[in-house]
Design brief:
five-stranded parallel beta sheet
Length: about 160
């Protein structure tokens, strides 16, 4: 069943068969999907394509930089939600992931529902974070000006000592 969805995903996966299977699930669910097979290619896409809404990043990308390093470099370019895809998670990878802003990870083969709900959750969390950050910026802008207003008011309403 095809859903209407406007989100564009970047799928970074070096396994052609997995890329075909995952991209079919995503396209059938209404996502627009762009696929690349390396961390270097993912970085180039982010540099040149402002329309990506979420990245699905395989951690082990074969030769070249891995998904964790590609994610670090991408986040220096643009703030995007990244969901990691992996065959297995070991303690070393989990430790390395702690230092990267991420919106979850999916163990490959978890199924279509897990993949789709993880993407929906990541997009929702990212949008919520952006809304909160915008509200905080408005709050700081407003409260930063309150001191100025109080000072002006005090000068105008200063009472004479008796």
């Amino acid at each position: 069943m095809k859903h209407v969805n406007k989100n564009r995903l970047l799928l970074v996966e070096d396994d052609v068969i997995l890329t075909l299977a995952e991209s079919k699930i995503l396209v059938d669910s209404g996502y627009e999907v762009r696929c690349v097979a390396s961390g270097e290619d993912a970085i180039e896409v982010i540099k040149n394509d402002n329309g990506i809404d979420l990245i699905l990043m395989d951690i082990d990308l074969g030769s070249g930089i891995n998904g964790l390093e590609a994610s670090r470099q991408i986040l220096k370019i643009k703030d995007l939600p990244i969901v990691f895809l992996t065959s297995c998670i070991d303690k070393k990878i989990i430790h390395q992931m702690k230092f990267i802003t991420r919106y979850g990870y999916i163990v490959k083969g978890s199924g279509e529902k897990t993949l789709l709900s993880s993407i929906e959750m990541a997009i929702g969390l990212f949008q919520s974070r952006k809304t909160i950050e915008a509200g905080e910026a408005r709050y700081h802008q407003f409260t930063g000006n309150i001191v100025e207003v109080i000072r002006i008011s005090d000068l105008r309403n200063k009472r004479k000592k008796i």
